[in-house]
Amino acid sequence: MFRKRTSCVRLFSTSVRIQANRAIVYSQNGQPADVLRAVTVPGLGAPPPQTANVRFALSPINPADVNVIEGVYPSKPRRTSFPGARGDAFVGGNEGLAEVTDVGEGVRGLAPGDWVVMKASQVGTWRSAANVREDQLLKVPRLDGLSEVNAATMAVNPPTAYCLLSHFVALERGAWVVQNGANGAVGQAVIQLARNAGVKTLNFVRSRDDIDALRRELEDLGATHVVTYDELGDKKSIKAKVNGWTGGQDIRLGLNCVGGESTMAMAGLLGSDAHLVTYGAMAKRPVPIPASFYIFKNLTSHGFWLSRWYEGNDEGRIKLVEELARTMALGKFKEPKHEILTIEKETSDEHASGLIRGIFQRMASGGFKKKVILKVESSD
Amino acid sequence: MFRKRTSCVRLFSTSVRIQANRAIVYSQNGQPADVLRAVTVPGLGAPPPQTANVRFALSPINPADVNVIEGVYPSKPRRTSFPGARGDAFVGGNEGLAEVTDVGEGVRGLAPGDWVVMKASQVGTWRSAANVREDQLLKVPRLDGLSEVNAATMAVNPPTAYCLLSHFVALERGAWVVQNGANGAVGQAVIQLARNAGVKTLNFVRSRDDIDALRRELEDLGATHVVTYDELGDKKSIKAKVNGWTGGQDIRLGLNCVGGESTMAMAGLLGSDAHLVTYGAMAKRPVPIPASFYIFKNLTSHGFWLSRWYEGNDEGRIKLVEELARTMALGKFKEPKHEILTIEKETSDEHASGLIRGIFQRMASGGFKKKVILKVESSD
Predict the structure, then answer these.
(1) Which of A27, A81, A300, B3 is the most buried (most CB within 10 A)?
(2) According to the lineage, what is the superkingdom (chains A, B) (predicted)?
(3) B13 and B68 together in one domain
């Protein structure tokens, strides 16, 4: 689908195209279901020097995107003005796979047909097309076997998992990692990257009706053990169980995206000289750690934020994208469970706005148990 | 006093002395006021090879000593058997200044008259004399101007303060440190060592009736500002106040010996890339830190335990003792506020036991607001 459309666009790439694009925008911070709307905006002209025109193939909705729209996230988007559209606005979305459709003068590293992801943060990916500076784009190798979905979701969660596993503790084959929120997108990436490296994972998830199905799913990804937070209630029993699994080996890396009491209990499973890394706060509660863990067990507690690591680290980032692309192309990293929601080109802006708000309403009430990916068709 | 007594002992150092010593011991873990007793034990014979006989001058009671007696501290003492006394027991006390009275064959680094502190932990310092292996002792330079009290209290709190200030953040002159429990022994040491290095301290203490006197006292030691935990209740106001003091400079080191909500609020005063170091838990509550501090402000949370640093680090330790001794001898590090409680040689064991238990009862109810130092006289 994507490739076909592309070749069609390339036919016109040297002429000024009269077409319309669509963007999902907001003018003020607030709940996405209240403030987002779809707008039709004029098509792109010929790209200015040092820029490329890109067409978005797939644009994921990540949890942090909601915080950005609410105005509570440290990374702030810039307002975009759309010639001919009323006023200016913020375009939603931070992650996305796009294809280069045209390049301006002086662009050296990109050509029409290339796949790119966003190097700059908060470019606004929930739209059909955009003109972007070359230095804000990162080329993704178009390898056989690398799916669009994998490429579209490779810039946030898998690199986070990669950094969590590699920046804090030198993990040898056979080492153990414990994590909570294990069925989240980062958690699933951790499971797979750890398995690829011969590292074992102890994975905590919330108890639920279909816990056996979830356990099987995570084990299929490579999870060594999947346990519910409930089991953390009985410290002695869970410690004995974990000791049996690890053969008494100290667990030296804990990954936390939850917070609250269960995180404290999980930290209690760590051995001496361990590192606990917080990268999320699903429970919206602080991370309470007993002083004795710090003092006597020499625990170190860190945070990880991908945007900080990305800053000024283009080289590491390019290497990582290439490594992830290869891993994915080899079938060693599954696509996240996902649902692609298409805003079709025939749809009116009013109807599209309703669709988008409906998506965020459903998301806010936990209605999706998978990654939601937008496909905003252009009306050209 | 101490020097006189010493020279007297040295007159007899080549003969086998018939004398009695006293030790504060316990046979089982429990509350100090319940389990401690004073026992008279035979005098020391000639020291075996590689050992020294030492006479304790001053032996502080530190908070951790209580935890050791309760059996809840990770460092465990070994039972000591006293020839002639009934059974064996643990001798209380971890810190103390002693004078070498006699040395066995093969002792190269010590001579009678030398001052020593304990290199090994949990040697049992609450006694009048002991025979100790040379490698468990650390010589303290007997500098003019170095008081007995300073030397007796130099092995635990000042080195902790020194490590807290030097192991986690490179503090330039003019940098800021924030700490709670600032009127504790470590807190006071932090204030003085920071002042000596041109580093500014923001010191939190509990509010109390004599808060003005305490503020003056800490300012006399070199505290830049002294603030009560109450002020942490209004985040905006305290942030504005602190910003005014620091001129907007980020505070990159926080020292915590309390825990609980006020520690979370104090951590909120730290800037980006800061380090929070926990070395105590006076509030007996976990350290709750919001995930956002870790993720977006790149906070790192550590623990510090002096015993771990001491392990296998004799060289660093010797250097530190020498540096502290010089600093103290120059009058740049005041004696802690203290009370010396003497167990006199004429006192019966029964009476002495009652005294000791009384001290710990008073201590448990917060009756001392200063360092308590034991002086256990021998009945020779």
Answers:
(1) A300
(2) Eukaryota
(3) yes
In Å, how far is B89's CA from the nearest CA of chain A? 25
Of B265, B291, B307, the residue that ends a domain is: B307
Band (pLDDT 50/70/90 cuts) for residue B80 is confident
* Phi and psi at residue A365, to the nearest 5°: -95, 15
pLDDT value of residue A211 = 96
Which tokens hold the place of B367? 């009756």
Q: Which helix (H) or strand (E) holds B178?
A: strand B176-179
What is the tally of structural domains in chain B? 2
A297–B301 C-beta distance less than 8 A: no
Instruction: Say whether both B116 and B200 belong to one domain.
Output: no
- Please tell me whether residues B220 and B266 are part of one structural domain: yes
Q: What is the pLDDT of residue B379?
A: 66
User: Which has the closest alpha carbon to A258: A284, A277, A225?
Assistant: A284
Asked if A310 and A318 touch (Cβ cutoff 8 Å), the reply is: no
For the beta carbon of residue B319, count every other beta carbon within 10 angstroms: 11
- Cβ–Cβ of B291/A288 closer than 8 Å? no
Q: What CATH number has the domain bearing residue B77? A: 3.90.180.10
Judge: B301–A298 Cβ closer than 8 Å, yes or no. no
Q: What is the ipTM of this complex?
A: 0.90
| Strand-by-strand arrangement of the B80-81 sheet | B37-42, B20-26, B88-91, B80-81
How many alpha carbons fall within 13 Å on the CB side of residue B309?
Answer: 20
B44 with B90, same domain: the answer is yes
Q: What is the least distance, in Å, from the CA of A342 to any CA of chain B?
A: 33
- Cα A110 → chain centroid: 24
pLDDT at B3: 33
Q: Beta strands of A62-149 (E only): which ranges?
A: 80-81, 88-91, 97-103, 115-118, 129-133, 137-140
Confidence tier at B380 by pLDDT (50, 70, 90) = low
Q: What stretches in chain A show pLDDT beneath 50?
A: 1-18
Q: Could you tell me the pLDDT band of residue B79, with boundaries at 50, 70 and 90?
A: confident
Domain assignment present for residue B131? The answer is yes
| Domain boundaries, position A182 | 157-307
**A278, A279, A300, A306, best to mutate vs chain B, most B CBs in 10 Å:** A278
Same-domain check for residues B148 and B161: no
How do residues B302-354 score in pLDDT, each as one tens digit? Answer: 999 999 999 989 999 999 999 999 999 999 999 999 999 999 999 999 999 99
Closest by CA to A22, choosing from A339, A352, A340, A341, is: A352
Q: Are A128 and A224 within one domain?
A: no
Pick from B287, B307, B327: which residue ends a domain? Answer: B307
Query: What spatial distance separates the first Cα and last Cα of chain B, rounded to whole Å?
Result: 16
CB A42 within 8 A of CB A21: yes
**Where on the phi/psi map is residue B347: left (φ > 0), alpha (ψ -120 to 50), or beta?**
beta
A295 CB neighbours in chain B (<8 A) are 278-281, 303-305
Mutate to test the interface with B, among A76, A294, A297 (most CBs of B within 10 A): A294
Distance of residue B233 Cα from the nearest chain A Cα, in angstroms:
17
Which residues, in sequence order, are CB contacts of B376 under 8 Å at separation 6+?
B22, B23, B24, B56, B59, B126, B127, B128, B343
Please tell me whether residues B237 and B355 are part of one structural domain. no
Q: Decide: B124 and B92 in contact? Cβ < 8 Å.
A: yes
On chain A, the residues whose CB falls within 8 A of the CB of B287 are 288-291, 294
Q: Which of A259, A293, A302 sits opposite B300 (nearest CB)?
A: A302
Check whether residue B148 and residue B176 sit in a common domain: no
